[in-house]
Write a structure and sequence with these properties.
about 160 residues; alpha+beta; Arc Repressor Mutant, subunit A; ADP-ribosylation fold; 2 domains; three-stranded antiparallel β-sheet; two-stranded antiparallel sheet; 6 helices; about 30% helix; transferase; RNA_2'-PTrans_KptA; Probable RNA 2'-phosphotransferase
């Protein structure tokens, strides 16, 4: 778990803290990452790295050839090359009770991330929300919110926009 958190910090949020540079799509050479981690007192073996990537149930990291990147959740600007798709009618957002007031006041916002994290199933949203205590799961009418009201050109009522 410590290695996964270390990777998240440096591949998603603060690569410069250990002297690595992500390319435009978020990739960094594996050797650069391993050398930088060792220089900064957190040695990781290639075997440990591959084990963390392969065993992660959320597929947080991807390896292609000699490159690695975080697959989601960046606060630094990267283009993951994700294709826009029509969402299902319902998606879920897991959060903590302390965040409800801000969400009610301003809606779901990405905060320091590039996107709001929505889950396809309630169970995943519960796990996400439980990271900071008792989970709260919000139901998002995603399908309705993506259909434009053609008469006014605005988002449909009730989408929080």
């Amino acid at each position: 778990m410590r290695i996964s958190k270390y990777l998240a910090r440096h591949l998603r949020h603060d690569p410069g803290a250990i002297g690595i540079t992500l390319d435009a799509q978020g990739w960094v050479p594996i050797d650069d990452l391993l050398e930088a981690a060792a220089r900064h007192g957190f040695p990781i073996t290639r075997q440990e790295l591959f084990l963390v990537v392969s065993d992660n149930d959320k597929q947080r990291y991807a390896i292609e050839g000699d490159l690695i990147r975080a697959s989601q959740g960046h606060s630094v600007a990267v283009d993951l090359g994700l294709e826009a798709v029509e969402p299902p009618e319902i998606l879920y957002h897991g959060t903590a009770p302390l965040s409800l007031g801000a969400i009610k006041a301003s809606g779901l916002l990405p905060m320091s991330r590039q996107y709001v994290h929505l889950s396809a199933d309630r169970e995943t949203a519960v796990r996400v929300g439980a990271r900071r205590g008792v989970p709260v799961v919000l139901v998002v009418a995603a399908g309705r919110c993506t259909r434009a009201d053609t008469s006014s050109g605005s988002a449909p009522t009730g989408c929080g926009w």
